[in-house]
Amino acid sequence: MIGLHALASEILRHTLDGRPAVAASLLDVVTEHGDRADLFGVCCAAADTGRVALQALFPESSVGVSGEWQLPPAMADQLAGDPHGLFAARFMTAFLNGDHAMLLALFQATETAGYQDRTESICALLAHVRGLTLRAEQGPATPDPGGVPA
């Protein structure tokens, strides 16, 4: 059996390679054999991968250095009907801001929502990170005056 820490890397690898079903199956293994700290670790590993992608997209920004990232109100409104997508965007934003209290609060909210909602929220975060990574592979983004990277 592969270690739970190694499973997080495998989940990310399959996510980035476009195999979300395999990543979700491995996430089930973490859920079954790990604990909440292991699942939280998967979320943080995914968010860190997203941070790296954002650094490539916005090399002049303060990603992971300083500054306050905010979820644009329009994006929050757009995701209002998608609680899993909203979790992904909020978790990523909290991670970029180093807001550990918010990271834990968001994760705990997925836990209280139940197994299925937690899994779908984590999978939405993985999909969000994959999207950021794919976009970063195209090269740095053109700055949007007054905009916040999404």
Indicate the topology.
Elements: H1 4-16, H2 20-33, H3 36-57, H4 73-78, H5 83-96, H6 100-113, H7 115-136
Description:
By secondary structure, the chain is mainly α. Helix content is 70%, strand content 0%. The chain has seven helices and no strands. The mean pLDDT is 85.
Summarize the helix and strand pattern as letters.
HHHHHHH
Query: Helix tally?
Result: 7
- Our estimate of the beta-strand percent is under 5%
Q: What is the number of E strands?
A: 0
- The span between the termini is 37 Å
- Helicity level, as a percent range? over 70%
Mean pLDDT: 85
Low-confidence stretches: none
CA gyration radius, whole angstroms = 15 Å
Largest beta-sheet details: none
Helix/strand-derived class? mainly alpha
Which geometry do the CA atoms define? Answer: globular
